[in-house]
Write a structure and sequence with these properties.
This protein is about 45% helix and about 20% strand. It contains 20 helices and 14 strands. The chain binds pyridoxal-5'-phosphate.
Amino acid sequence: MFCYSTKNKYHRIQLKEAILQGIAPDGSLYMPENIPVLSKDFLETLPQRTFEEIAQNVIIPYFGDHIPSAVITEIIREVFNFPVPVVQFSDNLFVCELYHGPTFAFKDFGARFLSRVLSYYQKDQDQEILILVATSGDTGGAVAAGFHGVKGIKVGILYPSGGVSPLQEKQLTTWGDNVFAYEVQGSFDDCQRLVKTALTDTQLRQKFKFSSANSINLARLIPQSLYYFEAYKQMGPGEHNVMIVPSGNLGNLFAGILAKAMGLKVKYFIAACNANATFTNYLNTGVYIPGPTVKTLSNAMDVGNPSNFERIDTFYGSTWNNRLRADIKSYSISDESTLAAMLRFRADYDYLLDPHGAVGYAAYLKEQPTDNQYCILETAHPAKFDYIYERYIQLPLDIPPDLAKFLTKEKKSMVITSAFAELKEALLSL
Ligand SMILES: *Cc1c(COP(=O)(O)O)cnc(C)c1O
């Protein structure tokens, strides 16, 4: 599989190289050159397929030319060892629970797969890989959990100081060993910019073999397509399935676009955004104006300049065209509406959505559902946000023991400003 970069169609490299680099030297993102289309037979028999079969059919066309199928199957078994249930709440409303992985958020799909693929690439290499990742909440934890203890790989996690939940912070600062946490006095967009700058810095590139574990890395996006197939299968195939995607950096949405390009029948997607409305505004006006990050209750989606916008723009031919607008709708949801949606869902269905899923439900309510079937991707376990329930709706939550165990561990992070020189110095001393 060849890839090209969003800024230069003629800059072609193999998928393996694109994954190892994370980002193109000019700072743009890699795209798969030929998105594989799955056979009609496979798509028609989807309801009878296991998750493992779906994973093999989706992943092998990308990776099969350089990783043996038996190894891919082994990786799939090891990485996706948790359920992906779809719960039906009414005739036309479903929720796909993506939080049954080890860090209780959907980021486990991409981060675990990436860690196994990189460690496969790394197995005969001497030079250490340094993985850098910016996190708005859940990526850091999933990446740390996926890479902790993996030989030949170090991980640097950058997160906005005060911008992640207390539990999320513990999930990314308590690992030690090969995992280093940098607490940035700035926003998530600052963290993202620092990572991008580091990855393209000549001096750092001489010292390290670098990669990124953000959704700028294709090895994170490709496995995220899987649960779109799984959700469709469990909803019951049809022509009117709409996927509601709580969105920040737009990686999850782009994985859905890949699934659709592979042949999955998704009528359209709804990008459910919080007050960070850059993408919603773009769909409404055709003008892309990145804004400063706004802090919200759905903190993992607090992104003012979503990096995967570049991929969506390239995929749709760099224009605000009808195909784009037929495939994707978007709503921007306030914190107030998020809380109201959370309470309403709980009252109607006795089920607690996390703040990100609640943004999805608020988008569903704005949509005034028609004869479509809607599936909200529930991206995190509500217990990760216990402080929100306690503070805003006076609802104490039970925290699952596997999550609670992080709270007793000691936080270890290095505080840095958002000036690149500080990060650079820290990394050079690793
Ligand atoms: C990362 C994250 C999102 C946003 O996903 P993107 O791929 O960045 O759009 C939504 N919800 C949760 C819980 C997340 O961790």
